[in-house]
Amino acid sequence: MNTFEHKNLINSEVKIQKRKSLFRSLIKPVEAGAHGTLNYVVKKGLGKNKIAKK
């Protein structure tokens, strides 16, 4: 392996690491219970006004 190939290999690895860190920073955390998915209250039927479970 000559120095030119070695430099290209190192530069490509640096680019890959930068790209991975960018995508990680773009991912946003999800809130539990967002959009009414947690502690859903049953509105009709036998279990009316009770919190639904799995």
Features:
44% helix; 54 residues; mainly alpha; rod-shaped
Helicity level, as a percent range? Answer: 40-55%
Q: How many angstroms does the end-to-end distance come to?
A: 59 Å
SS-based class: mainly alpha
Task: Provide the residue-averaged pLDDT.
Answer: 82
DSSP strand content: under 5%
Low-confidence stretches: none
Number of strands: 0
Q: DSSP helix count?
A: 1
Instruction: Give the radius of gyration.
Output: 25 Å
Topology as H/E string? Answer: H
Short account of what is shown:
The protein is an all-alpha fold and 54 residues long. The protein is built from 1 helix and no strands. It is rod-shaped, with a radius of gyration of 25 Å.
